[in-house]
Amino acid sequence: MVSTYNILIVFTAALGSFTYGFDSAIIGSVFGLPSFFSYFNLTLNEAGSASIIGAANGLFAGGGMIGAAINGWLADRLGRVRAIQIPCMLGVIAAAIMGGSVHVAMFLVGRCLAGIACGMLSIVTPLYQSEVSPARERGRMVGAHGILIVTGYAFAAWTGYGCYFESNPEVQWRLCLSLQAVAPLLLLIATPRIPESPRWLVAQGQRERAFEILNRLHPTTDANIDCATETFTEICAQIAIGSENRQSFLQSLKDSQTLKRFLCAFFVQCIAQSSGILVISNYQVLLWNNLGLYGSLPLLLYSVYTSWAACLNWVASRIVDRIGRVRMMVIGLSGCVLMLSLYTAMVAEYSGSNNKAGNAMGILFLFLHLTFYATFVDVTSYVYCSEIFPTNQRAQGVAASIVGLFMATLIYTEAASTAFAHVGWKYYLVFIIVPAAGVPLIAQLPETKGLSLEGSAALFGVPAGSHSGPEKTQVKLVEDSGSAKHVPDVSRRSQ
């Protein structure tokens, strides 16, 4: 059973997820506001304007890769909470730059800084959530990351729709961009009240503090009386193993099992983005234009689209611990391939025509594509990548997966504006062929449902601490509220 305290800190950390979602999606809303284009003398039909639209998405993704690479190291060096605080401050600064932009270059600089902040948050949020969640509920708890990302998408979409009706054209897009500061500022204010990851604390030798936090996260109940103690025992044993075999990041990649984990995490996020979901999201208004829809209606459809995704992400968080990670990703990617194939056929046949039935079917298939992705892939991919690494490699491992996410995003979104201008609907074939080829590979991944973080890592060749920790390792008495509480030998088998 999950404590209220545990739920509160997981959802507080998920403000970082909301930041990523809002910042990522707000560009789609801004591109739906004619006032933005007129202020910077841009038009959708010119090659120069298309390159700037591509740059806005590409710089965000490129910044995300930089942020991901940086924060994997920072999370290990400074701790998970500090690694949350730094990108929050950067996100507030980026929002101020974009909201106050007087030149397109200033806007692009702010967009790149926002990407760096979001890349950093995309790593540390699921990393932190996985390390403070109980094993049996970890899918649901880390699922908060995916839920709040898409909730951020939805808020960005409704913000754009509301700003469309603002009488002052300049306020329309400036307000959209300035609101990016709200979530990271709230999270920055809240961080002094959330605990450090107990796994990171044990790795730093702060066992007493780690055990106290675990007791708050997993309080003693009749149904789960030894959860904190068992978790602490397992953590200590595996970290002891990791300490005995400590290597640099590059040295660790020489080990075949370690390399396999990193490649799996990288691949999972790459193939998820190869479904075309972010291209569809960021260029959504333009897609509705291709189906003959203009004015405020595309922004309204975009808002409904992202709100539907947020609802489905919540559904995913409720079923991921029942169905299993691998099975869900296989179902989701297969459904995405089918739905996007049908949508592409509708666009190829009816784009620019007055055939209402054909255009309506295109809208339906786009929503069904989202349904498969949000229900089976989005939440699940983050959960899976956060749980297949041992503690001493988890930050770098999650970083590798997020680098894969932003690398795929950079390639696909940077090319999208030019590709749509030159080859039109044929660009969607990439998002049909690539994930279709990836489904058989996803199906071969080990399943981690119901396992502890240490047990999940064991599937990839890492010794499970509770089963294979050094026999001689002992954990000393921990003072808890003035009374001595004994923590058992870390080699003791978990129940």
TrEMBL record:
SUPFAM superfamilies named in the record: MFS general substrate transporter
Compositional bias per record (Basic and acidic residues), positions renumbered to this chain: 469-495
Membrane topology value: Multi-pass membrane protein
Residue ranges crossing the lipid bilayer per the database entry: 7-32, 52-74, 86-102, 108-128, 140-159, 171-190, 262-281, 293-316, 328-348, 360-385, 397-413, 425-443
Source organism superkingdom: Eukaryota
Domain Major facilitator superfamily (MFS) profile: 9-449
The organism of origin for this protein: Aspergillus pseudoustus
Keywords, sorted A to Z: Membrane, Sugar transport, Transmembrane, Transmembrane helix, Transport
Protein name: Sugar transporter
